[in-house]
Write a structure and sequence with these properties.
The complex is a heterodimer of chains A (495) and B (236).
Chain A lengths: L1 H10 L3 H39 L12 H33 L6 H23 L15 H21 L8 H26 L4 H36 L6 H14 L16 H12 L1 H15 L3 H6 L1 H23 L5 H4 L4 H30 L6 H34 L5 H7 L1 H29 L27 H7 L2
Helix pairs in contact in A: 2-3, 2-4, 2-14, 2-17, 3-4, 3-5, 3-6, 3-7, 3-14, 4-5, 5-6, 6-7, 6-8, 7-10, 7-12, 7-14, 8-10, 10-12, 12-14, 12-15, 14-15, 15-16, 15-17
Chain B lengths: L2 H28 L5 E2 L1 H4 L3 E2 L8 H10 L65 H9 L6 H10 L18 E5 L17 E5 L1 H11 L24
Antiparallel strand pairs in B: 1-2, 3-4
Helix pairs in contact in B: 3-6, 5-6
Chain lengths: 495, 236
Amino acid sequence: MATDSDSIQHADPDLRPAIDRSLRHPVMFFFTSAAAWLAVALVLGIIASAKSHAPEFMGNIGWLLYGKSQAAHLNTLVYGWGCQAAFGIIIWLMARLSRKECRNPGTILVAGHVWNFAVLFGVIGILSGQGTGVPWMEFPSAVWPVLLISYVFIMVGSVVQFRCKEGGHTYISQWYLLGAIVWFPWVYATSNLLIFTFDGHPLMDAAINSWFKSTFILLFFVPVGVGAAYYLAPKVTGRPVHSYSLAQMGFWALAVIGPWTGMQKLTGAPIPQFLPYVGAAATVLFFIPAVTVAVNILKTVSGHNTTISASPTLRFMIAGIIGLLVLGSIGVCLNFPSSIKYAQFSFAGYGYEILAMYGFFSMCAFATMYFVVPRITRREWLSRRFIRWHFYLSIYGMSTIVICTIGGGLLQGAAQEYWNMPWSDAATRGYAYGWGTTVSWLFILFANIFFLLHLLLMWARLGRRSQHPTLLSKHTSESPHGPEGDIDEIQAANA
Amino acid sequence: MTFRIFSLGLLGTFLWPWLLIIVVPYATMQRIERVEFNEEDDGRTGVYAPARPGRVADGAKVYAANGCYACHTQLIRPTYAGSDVWRDDWAGMKKTESNEETRRETTVYDYDGESFAQIGLTRTGPDLSNIGRRVESYVKGTDTTDEEWFLMHLYNPRGGFKYWSACPSGPQFFDVKKHYGQGNGGGLAVQAPEGYEVLPSDEVRALVSYLISLRKDDTVPYSLNYRADKKRAIEQ
């Protein structure tokens, strides 16, 4: 296998820059528009969070009513930022790993524009009172087929590339990314068809909706983030993945466990009784793939302390992987039979979603962007200070949000269960934590304003022209971007 | 791992849960049958079909589009899953001199007439499963009707002593219109600028009609009754 990939490698030394060039426009388009949507999502999140404890904040603007701004916040976060960041990551990584240039950048760009307009239309729909009222699927129901079709056009190139790559070896990241590519449309089409198109029982629609939210996270955002980490960790440190069999085990554990999660949100509802139990058990078991991945990646990078402190990519990636570990652990805490009733209707559910979307996925996405953007624009990042601010504000903001929503959420849930205390106790219990959440969202907004600005400068090709990557510390012995080899070489050299 | 094995693995791991927890339960629940009363248990016969008068479908849309489910739930869980049944007036009314014991858990038929069960995301606000009946008891003995109570609540939830309420006021639900003479009627009893009155929109009327229809005070068939102290008709 080593000789196989070596020969391909030496046959075409110009391939990597050529791939990067072919993907420059689509990938930069997805990254910049994702970052812009992230800023929108954060502003909406701050407004909504403020309203949850100070209801008269912007109280006379009907289209920003809490229910609407909160829905718009989550939908822009998921479809505007999350999906588009994931698309950029997937098409770049799949091209690099399959060693194929992108042949349809035009199609991808057009589909990407369609995606953006659909999201915009959807958000306006929510704010103007046309939302469907189905969590995470609030866009008016005309939007989902458009999103699905543009998704197919964005992804089809990557699948074709994979199918006609030369050489038999498939790297672990590719399994994860292919998984994500297939799972998302399956989950998305199923849920939308059953909820909006077919006429099902209202309760089963609600159950499918919570399955949708959970599988969307665990079978799309998780594999994309993990796939990226499995690429970046060996690449930047120049060391092979710690254990290949652990990596495979982690993947199959996710594939087996992920699809059963979600319905614990309906514990106590009159649906077939096993559904919530299965959902809770599977969400607890998600700890297994999370730990497997985390151990494997952290083992791969351990010992490279200078590189870690110097490389923006590695720092963000490690933060993301720690986020994954926390996500797995919190999934265990919130879904035990004894804790479910406290978590079920408190802010903890929101905390879990935000931890997955920002604490884990977004950190991995930032890591990939810090790695990819200099390569496709052929310019280096401008300011080490911007990167630092982005990192620290994100970390502080995220940790506080997790503490406030999950810790505060459990206290709120406990107050809800004290049935002989007045309801105002339970209702006001969360306000202080609500304040905490609002302020932390502000931190995260600042962090991402730096990031968006930086990215836009890079997009305008105003980055530094230099051979030396932008590092977070001045003196480093190892090259923090790693050797410019293909991932297979690193893998093969140590096999 | 070859691509073939990978694809089969992916298909297998996803297909089973997809069938077992999505497709089959969906089909089963779609064809769920009505429960019938019977003479021995209930002392009467006929099909249990809870009546929900009012603009339920319209109002449910307004409820959904305004995101009330972000803070309000509509689910009374059995006691193993939460203490909802005991919380004052959530699950129905407690037995007093003037009313019967009607507390009960949510049943599959409680969402009739809606296209999506608004289980809700958080309980920042109280559960609304029984809000229609609850408000009826709030306004009992006053000269406000339940519709007026709801409209006043939606116009300004923090009126009265509820300064702590986080329920949003809904300015988009009301038109402030100039009035002539005695007014058009139907204006809200709130302070409006001189010569103006506050008129509820059609949207909010549908919403209120829906909220009024949320109540748990009907008699359910013996087989759907999960109370520990339930009695069969022939035993009484």
